[in-house]
Amino acid sequence: MNLLEFSEYFLLIALAIYAIANLRIATRKTIGMGLVGVAGLSIAVATILILVQNLYQIGFCRDIATALVILGPIGTITFARVLRGWKNV
Amino acid sequence: MYDIITIIKSILLIISGCFVLLAALGILRFKDNIPRVVYARVHILGVADSACILALLLLGEPFLAGAYFILTPFASHAIANGFYYGEDTND
Questions:
Q1: Which residues does chain B have with pLDDT short of 50?
Q2: Which of A21, A68, B59, B86 could lock B24 by a disulfide, CB 3.0 to 4.6 Å apart?
């Protein structure tokens, strides 16, 4: 295992731990906490997919990561808008 | 032996991994009974977002890093704004 592979595996493990932590946050009782958890989970999974593509040369991971990176924040913004309500526009 | 670009890349990837680990630790450390803990967690989310943007740049995905760099401040602001107006009495 060379130095670059080692650092990629280290980042992969760190992101897996971060994804599990975010999953735990996403299951809290309030909607705001769920939004925070899902926003963190989406970027963690996208980065994990890019790492998997670099490590194992799986091409379609990049397409899924692109969809996650673009649609994740847009979904978060939309849901936060619903959470905010329409009274204080 | 490794060339200098590989060494710099590896060091930066390990640094971003350390930041992601610190963010995971920080996001779990706060207790739920602290008032308005969502703002603190949005702040921690920003640390991990920056680390992931750095990692995406190093892994050769500048388009994804740029798109996320533009979109993530809007998402964080939307979460905080929605919590302030929608759920300010809870949590």
A1: 91
A2: A21
Residue A74 CA to chain centroid, in angstroms?
13
User: Residue A84's Cα: distance from chain center in Å?
Assistant: 23
Record: contact A24-B28, CB cut-off 8 A: yes
B25 min Cα distance to partner chain A (Å):
8
* Helices A60-84, A31-56: crossing angle, 10 deg rounding: 170
From CA B28, how far away is CA A18, in angstroms rounded?
10
Tokens 């936060």 — which residue? A80
Residue-range domain boundaries for chain B: 4-86
**Single pTM value for the model:** 0.91
Q: Distance (Å, rounded) from C-alpha A47 to C-alpha A65?
A: 7
Which two three-digit tokens encode residue A56? 């194992």
What ipTM was estimated for this complex? Answer: 0.90
